[in-house]
Structure formats: C-alpha cells, structure tokens
Amino acid sequence: MTVEQDFEAVDQFPVGMRVLAVDDDQTCLRILETLLHRCQYHVTTTDSAQTALELLRENKNKFDLVISDVDMPDMDGFKLLELVGLEMDLPVIMLSAHSDPKYVMKGVKHGACDYLLKPVRIEELKNIWQHVVRKSKFKKMKSIVIHDESSQGNSDQNGVKANRKRKDQFEEVEEEDEERGNENDDPTAQKKPRVLWTRELHNKFLAAVDHLGVEKAQPKKILDLMNVDKLTRENVASHLQKFRSALKKITNEANQQASMAAIDSHFMQMSSLKGLGGFHHQRQIPLGSGQFHGGAATMRHYPLGRLNSFGGVFPHVSSSLPRNHNDGGGYILQGMPIPPLDDLHINNNNKAFPGFSSQQSSLMVAPNNQLVLQGHQQSSYPSLNPGLSPHFEINKRLEDWSNALLSTNIPQSDVHSKPDALEWNHFCNSDAAQAGFIDPLQMKQQPANNLGPMTDAQRLRSSNPNEGLFVGQQKLENDTMPSNAGSLDDIVNSMMPKEQSQAEFFEGDLGFGWHNSSLRTCI
Amino acid sequence: MDAHVAQLQMQYRNYILSLYQQGFLDDQFTELKSLQDDGSPDFVAEVLSLFFDDCVKLVGNMARALDQTGTVDFCQVGANVHQLKGSSSSVGAKRVKGLCINFKELCEAKNYEGCVRCLQQVDIEYKTLKAKLQDMFNLEKQIVQAGGIVPQVDIN
C-alpha cells in the first residue's frame, strides 16, 4: 500500500473498511455480518478459520481487519490470531462468549487489538476502525522515518549515537506496550517509530553478526548480509548498538552468577592466574563432548535459553571459560561447550526460551566446533593466537572478567536465581510478544489434545459421524441415532408432542406458509 | 378494516411486551429488530431460523454425548453449551441463555443427572420460544395482510 493510496482511503474511511469475519456459529456470523454492514463496512464472512487464512494469504491487502471467534472447531481462534498477526500483520479482534478475564488476557497476549464479548452490540463495532488506523499510521510513520534516517547522518557511529537515545526511549515505550499486549498501543506516544525487529529479522541480524563477529560487525556489512528490503544501515546500526550494550550488561551481571557456578568448580583447581591458561585448556577438553562439569552444567540451560533470545547468553558462561572458539557467534559461545544440535532443539521447546532457529544454531555451532579444534591445539595461554585475533579483544575482556572473579570468593549458587529475563526482553522488543505467541504455537501441540474433545465434538457436528474420533466417542458413533430412542429424546418427545409438530412445521422459513389456526391466544 | 388492523396491532404490541416481561426475550432481540429495515425485511426471521437450526443441532449433540453408555465427555457437552450460549445471547433468547449458564456449571461439575435435566429444560425452552415467535410472526403477517404496518414496539 503506497502512502498515496492511504491518503485516498482515509477520505472515506472508515466507510468501506474491509472486514473478514470468522465464526463457526452461523447465527452469530449472520448477525455480525449485518451489524458490520450497518456500520458501512465491507464484509466477507466465513465459518472456517482455515478458509479465512487462505483468503488472507491469497491477498493480504484485501482486508483491513479480521474479527474472529475464539472457539472454533477447525482452529483455535488464538492460533488464527497469531498467524494473522505474524503473516499478515493485520489487526485482529477476538470475539467470544467467554467473559472470563483469563481468556481476555490470552487474547491480548496473543496480540489481539480488542476482545469483544458476545452478544456484540453495534456500538462496539462502530469503533473498531480505530485499530486499523493505528496500525496503518504506525506503518506509515515507520516508512517515513526510514526515509528520513537514510538522508541523515554519515557515519554509523554518529547516526547511531544520535538516534540511540531516542530509540531507547522509544523502545522502552514499545516494550511496555508489548508486555501489556498492545492494549495501549499508541504510536503518537512514542518518540519515533522504528523498524520492527521481528524474530526473522533479528535472526538474520544475528546470523550476519555471527558471521562477521560481534566486535568486528559493521552495520553496512551486516546490512549487506541480511539483504532485507527497506532496512537501512542506520536501523542496523542502532540495533547493533543495543545488541552490544545489552550483551555487555548481561555479561556483567551474569558474571556474578556465572562465576558462582563455573568459577567455583574450576577455581578450586587453580592456584594462580597463570593457571587460567590451564583452566582454559581444561575447559576446552570437554567441549568436544559438549559436557560441562560442575556447576557450569546448571548454566547450560540458562545460556542456551539466552541463545534463543539473540545468542548473547554465552558470554557469562564464557567469562569463566574464556575463549575457545572465535567468531561473532563464537564470542557468544566462547567457552561454552556446544551441545549437539539436538540439545538446542530441545531448548527450543523450553517454554522460557522460544524462537531459536535451527538455522541459527547450525551457524553458531559449526564454526565453533571447528574452532574448538583449533583451541585444543593451543597449549599456552591461548588468547593471543593470531589466527583468532579478531576476537582478541573479546578474549581479553573476558579474561579481565575472569580475573576479577577469581579474585573474589563467590559462593556457589544457582545460576537460575536471577533470570535476566527482563534484560533480554528490553533489548529485543519483539521478544516478549514472541515469547508470548511462539510458545503457544509449540505448546499448542499438547493442549490440542485437551482441546480435542471440544473441538472434535464440534467437528462432529459437521463432519462424517463415522470417523470415530475418540475411544469414548466410538460407541457413540456406532450407535448414533437409534440409541437416542431409549432416553432423552423419548422423554422430551413424550412431554411435548404438540410442540414438536409445530417445531417441525417451523422448519425453513419462519413466518411463511402458516395456518391461522396455529395462532394461539396465550396472551 | 382500520379497526381490525388497529386491533391486530394492539394484539401484536401486547404480545411482544409479554414476551419481554416473561423473560423470553431481552434487549438483544430489540437490537436485532432494529437491524431489520427495508433493505433486509426478513432479517429477524432469517436469524431466528438459523438460531433454531443451531438449537436442534446442539441439543442433538448434547443428547448424544450424554447418552453414552460409557464415560460421558463433559467437555464436549460443555463446548456445545458454550456455543448455544453464544448464539442464544446473540439473538436475545434470554431464558435459553440463562439455562446455558447453569448448564455450563453442571458440565464443569460433571453432574450427570443435572446435565440431563438441564438439557431437557433447554429443549423445552427453545421449542417454547420457537412457538411463541412463530405466533409473533404470524401476527405480523396478519397485520400486513390486513393492510396495516407492523408497529415498532417500545420496550420500557
């Protein structure tokens, strides 16, 4: 959508706003459709979430807004919500008869712009267009800003520094919004809109940084590697700045914990700083096997989880286990015994650390594995290896940390005691939202079973009754109608014969073809 | 003729009011009526038709679910109740909706006897409502046939 088109559309807006309404309940759908028409929106309806997705995928520019019921047989409304948000970035409004706040919370967390309770009133629908305006305004501002940025600033540093403060402020507001689930999402409250660092975008960024090396990574090169349209060097530069500062922050903080676990176990083995070299050496040995020993093992979860955020976790591990492998990702993974890919995948499912892509892991793992071998060849204090010189600085810094740590006696304690979750969330603004919705995408695999009885039951209504979805249901399906004869229906039928005949008569068009005699004076 | 129409209209008005007073219908029904206009003159009839179709279907599902000789899947029953609650509240079927709320609790409590009884009540209730609305539409038809227009009934 070009800016010009936006302006044109705004003239008539919200009249003609294109809404896609999804609800498996035909009664509600019909009412919703009429209500929306009454608001002068353009309405498309479907009773299947799957169809809705197809329609949207076909052409995401066909619709401005999606309204979806929560309980649907073929797909959970929340899942649809996530997918629409992720793939099409359209505003989605949830609709449900559940007034339970936990459902509302769920909707909000999954990124719903609004949550309406059935029965929906026309007043509520009259205002939904604001969600569309918000989103498109945000996008517009973003694109305008990007143009502005590219005309500003010459060097990366200048641009970054100038923008940094604004962006930090912006990010804070952004993250708060994210954590509140977009409830108060208002672009005008933010200083300056910026590129939305989605998971995919961030992964690309990480891959590029990893490839170049954190210290050596330059925004221009990162940008080239990322190869993303409309992304400017300034965007990357500021993102990189934040990345680095967050890394630093976390490393510093995590050092205290990292040291407790890892240093403690190894510190005892050392008698002097010099022994650090031996320490390094020792640490390298188990790397191949991917095994930590001692307290460091407890850190594995934590760091790996962090890797999911953006691979910055390892520094605090590596602080105690200074460099073993070196490249951009290596810095991050230094000293960290690279677990086999499987482990990383396992951690993908760890609720706290979603979103780690295997692609990324291989990027990280492979070069490190190679470097591990190199590391092994070092016999002396290894950080000065010229072959690994790009990361000498990093190594040095890490060693400094280690030195500092070694000089203090820090009692061992559980690394997990201080989650650092906030740090990461603050950095990667989309993380919170991702953590929110990516989880369910994976977690849904299990709850799907719990939902099974419900959804399947609903599926029963429309699908082939002989499918026999559950063990319990099997009997039901085999019996189907005949079994009713002996029970509820009988009771009901016997009680109301008159009603039934009239009810049957009632089938089809209401209000047509009736006998006057059926009129009862029961006033 | 006019007197006849007037009489019918009066009858109609009273009938509608009684439906509200007796709790068969609520505000949502009024909303529904307000959506009906020249562009969609049969809107209310259409929607109610859909609703009663839904009722038949859902009650049937629930009856089957509760009729299992093995373990009863209360989740499934609950899901159907939830659906019915949604649609009944959307059309303004007040009594049906009220029953659904109770029904839901019974499902959650896995109260088999309670559920069965409640389902029977739901069945009766929606059929009763259906009949009453039939009468209402009938009256409307009579009025129109007699040359009059169906009055807008103001619910206080």
UniProtKB/TrEMBL annotation, chain A:
InterPro entries: ARR-like, CheY-like_superfamily, Homeodomain-like_sf, Myb_dom, Myb_dom_plants, Response_reg_B-typ_pln, SANT/Myb, Sig_transdc_resp-reg_receiver
Record-annotated HTH myb-type domain positions: 189-248
One Gene Ontology MF term: DNA-binding transcription factor activity
Ranges of residues in domain Response regulatory: 18-133
Polar residues: compositionally biased ranges: 151-160
Entry-annotated residues carrying 4-aspartylphosphate: 69
Major site of localization recorded for this protein: nucleus
Compartment(s): Nucleus
Domain of life according to the entry: Eukaryota
Regions of compositional bias (Acidic residues) in chain numbering: 171-186
SUPFAM superfamilies the UniProt entry points to: CheY-like, Homeodomain-like
Biological process terms in GO annotation: callus formation; cytokinin-activated signaling pathway; maintenance of shoot apical meristem identity; phosphorelay signal transduction system; primary root development; regulation of anthocyanin metabolic process; regulation of chlorophyll biosynthetic process; regulation of cytokinin-activated signaling pathway
Keywords associated with the record: Activator, Cytokinin signaling pathway, DNA-binding, Nucleus, Phosphoprotein, Transcription, Transcription regulation, Two-component regulatory system
Region of interest called Disordered, as start-end residue ranges on this chain: 146-194
Family label: Belongs to the ARR family. Type-B subfamily.
PANTHER family tied to this protein: TWO-COMPONENT RESPONSE REGULATOR, TWO-COMPONENT RESPONSE REGULATOR ARR10
Subunit structure: Binds the target DNA as a monomer.
Function, as annotated: Transcriptional activator that binds specific DNA sequence.
Protein name listed in UniProt: Two-component response regulator
Source species: Brassica oleracea var. oleracea
From TrEMBL, chain B:
InterPro entries per record: AHP1-5/YPD1, HPT_dom_sf, Sig_transdc_His_kin_Hpt_dom
Protein name: Histidine-containing phosphotransfer protein
Cellular localization per UniProt: Cytoplasm, Cytosol; Nucleus
PROSITE patterns to which the protein is assigned, alphabetical: HPT
CDD domains in the record: HPT
Species annotation: Brassica oleracea var. oleracea
One Gene Ontology term of the molecular function aspect: protein histidine kinase binding
Keywords, ordered alphabetically: Acetylation, Cytokinin signaling pathway, Cytoplasm, Nucleus, Phosphoprotein, Two-component regulatory system
Physiological role: Functions as a two-component phosphorelay mediators between cytokinin sensor histidine kinases and response regulators (B-type ARRs). Plays an important role in propagating cytokinin signal transduction.
Record's GO cellular component terms: cytosol; nucleus
Modified residues (Phosphohistidine): 82
Domain (HPt): residue spans on this chain: 40-147
Gene Ontology process terms (BP): cytokinin-activated signaling pathway; phosphorelay signal transduction system
Domain of life, per lineage: Eukaryota
Domain comment as written in the entry: Histidine-containing phosphotransfer domain (HPt) contains an active histidine that mediates the phosphotransfer.
